[in-house]
Design goal:
With 163 residues, this protein is α+β, with helices and mostly antiparallel strands. Helix content is 53%, strand content 17%. Helix 1 crosses helix 3. The relative contact order is 0.16.
Length: 163
């Protein structure tokens, strides 16, 4: 059996993983302990994020001709691929948060909603709150003036009732 035949299913698996992804982030995981890696994987699973380690050549083959092709220049050294199909900022946020306790973990680059970002760009994206947090902030800011108006009207009604 040829080597290409052996590697084809892995390339197809990578293609299936990134198909329809909101974001793909590349991570340098070299130096993580088994305990840290296990905890990282658990944190990522909780956010419904896929974390896999593949050979760089196989990742390059899988991303050829896709919106993630710009990542191929960063596929050097040990690389893990982190994929989210729902929340575009979640992989960067979870990895950056975990990197605070595991200094060996480094963001390499990523493609978020079709746009390539280097390590600094991905670090900036990691500061963006999740969609749910942003929506709750929006609702809070919309609700606040209405609540204040209701209090003022209530106070006016109470003053008129006393008089």
């Amino acid at each position: 059996m040829a080597k290409v035949d052996i590697k084809a299913p892995i390339v197809d698996e990578i293609k299936a993983t990134i198909d329809g992804a909101a974001s793909v982030v590349l991570v340098d995981y070299l130096g993580l302990t088994v305990e840290q890696d296990t905890k990282l994987r658990k944190n990522l699973r909780a956010e419904d994020i896929t974390y896999k380690v593949y050979k760089n050549t196989l990742i390059k083959r899988a991303i050829e001709g896709t919106e993630f092709e710009s990542l191929s220049k960063d596929l050097e050294g040990p690389t893990a691929i982190v994929v989210s199909k729902k929340d575009a900022t979640a992989p960067a946020r979870v990895i950056a948060d975990f990197a605070k306790t595991a200094s060996k973990l480094e963001l390499k680059s990523g493609v978020v909603e079709g746009t390539y970002y280097d390590a600094n760009g991905i670090q900036a994206i990691s500061q963006i709150p999740s969609r749910e947090v942003l929506l709750s902030r929006l609702l809070g800011s919309l609700q606040s003036p209405i609540a204040n108006l209701a209090r003022v009207i209530n106070q006016v009604a109470e003053q008129k009732a006393e008089a």
